[in-house]
Amino acid sequence: MFFSLIVPTLGRVEELRSLLLSLTQQSLKTFEVIIVDQNEDDRLLPVVKEFSDRLSILHLRSPIRKCNHARNLGASRAGGDILTFPDDDCIYTKDILKTVNHTFSCVRSPEFITGSVITHEGQTGRSGRWQTEETVIDPHTVWTCLIEFNFFIRRNAFNAVGGFDETLGPGTPFGSAEGQDLALRLLKKGFAGLYLPTLRIIHPDKPVSLNIARAYSYGAGMGRVMRSNHLAPGIVLMFLLRPIAGGILYLLKGNIPFFRYYVMTFLGRVRGYLSVCAGMATDASPTA
Description:
Elements: E1 3-9, H1 14-24, E2 31-37, H2 45-51, E3 57-61, H3 67-76, E4 82-84, H4 96-105, E5 112-118, E6 135-136, E7 151-154, H5 155-160, H6 178-188, E8 193-202, H7 208-228, H8 233-252, H9 256-278
Parallel strand pairs: 1-2, 1-4, 2-3, 5-8
Antiparallel strand pairs: 4-7, 5-7, 6-8
Helix pairs in contact: 7-9, 8-9
């Protein structure tokens, strides 16, 4: 199978260079790299030139600084059977594409495959809660089986649901859960998804201070996706109660930064959930 790796990028040079270097070391070579450059300047040209003799690279420019717009733009130019969307600060371990290719080649293979995250030190990443066993993805498990940069989709399935929702994700007030939204729409169309816990991509954990700053926006994304995809009340309630419990726990421990993180996550999820009713497509900022 032929893979299209679509990389939205903004403001990162050395990180992108590290990703491209890791791609030159892939055991499976049948892929192209589509870089969707959202920078206003030409900072990436030396990096593209450096790898142009080792990788098949298409360098696109986009003045629109929305990650999902960049992903959809790259997908519209992709020639691969399989689409995937690495972050510009990821590192691919050498057998990632080989493993995915084997799984897609099996009888009754799924239409999309996801995996988990490790840090540069080889530890499980803090980017989410992860299932420990191979798991069929459904509206409940999608929240613990999926992150956007480790998400491989057959191109026909991606096109069938219209790609990523451009009102979600980085660059919008609803800063997360765009991958879950895409997966839920795929499931509604009858496409199957499979999570492989051993399919790990390296991605750095973000500082706690940055996580706190993003907590409201990321919570708003999750709340909006839960409501727009009509998830069962039990699932919604569980994800509303979790940050309340986390906030109480860290308040009792005297850990104020983590307390603030869980409070902002809860408020964001509520605001995002209610935004579907209120028609708030662009404003999800805290009012307090």
